[in-house]
Amino acid sequence: MTALEIKVEELVKPIIENLGYSVYDVIYQKEGKDNYLRIFIDSPKGIGLNDCELVNNSITDILDEKDYIKAQYFLEISSPGIERTLRREEQFKENIGKQVEIHLYKQINNQKTITGILNEYNEDYIIVDDFKIENKNIASAKTVYNWED
User: Fold this and answer.
1) What is the pLDDT of residue 83?
2) Does the domain formed by 3-78 have CATH 3.40.390.30?
3) What is the pLDDT of residue 138?
4) What's the pTM?
5) Lesser CB count within 10 Å: N end or C end of the chain?
6) Are 3-78 and 89-143 equal in CATH topology?
7) What CA–CA distance (Å, rounded) separates 14 from 92?
8) Would you list the DSSP string of 12-34?
9) Which of 2.40.30.10, 1.20.1600.10, 2.30.30.180, 3.65.10.10 would CATH assign to domain 89-143?
10) Is the dihedral of CA 96, 101, 102, 107 positive or negative?
11) Could you tell me what percent of the chain has a pLDDT over 90?
């Protein structure tokens, strides 16, 4: 996470938790000419459009007041979805024993994408099936939902 993403999360997390949700992730990124602040929220009951609207309305004023982001940006509040991006230590640890898809910067055994069961996570590497993958070689990671169950 960037320093800005951490500051934004620290600012909005108490408000979001007070509403009964948790913060799954905060991502600030530029896409084309536009900037986006994406806040992913979660709840044991799931997330619907009304939940996103409530969180959006509850945090907009404080984000404007603190003015951490000087450029114009679009605020998006959403669920992390069924197949969730894994970026944080706790997200990897929560998904040990589950199927994941890892995209790599450098190939391992002629593969740039590895899908399998996440068996281990530590600060240096993960183990997916029989592959030991250094964390610095992970371009992106996500959970994989079994659509056939």
Assistant:
1) 96
2) no
3) 98
4) 0.88
5) C
6) no
7) 23
8) HHHHHHHTT-EEEEEEEEEETTE
9) 2.30.30.180
10) positive
11) 97
Domain spans, the chain = 3-78, 89-143
* C-alpha separations of 9 from 14, 24, 66, 99 in Å: 9, 10, 13, 28
| Sequence-distant (≥ 6) Cβ neighbours of residue 40 within 8 angstroms | 23, 24, 25, 26, 27, 77, 78, 79, 80
User: CA-CA distance, 72 to 128, in Å (whole number)?
Assistant: 40
How far is Cα 16 from Cα 20, in angstroms, rounded to an integer? 7
Instruction: Provide DSSP, 34-96.
Output: EEEEEEEEE-TT---HHHHHHHHHHHHHHHHHH----S--EEEEE---SS-B--SHHHHHHTT
d(CA 133, CA 127) in angstroms, rounded, equals 6
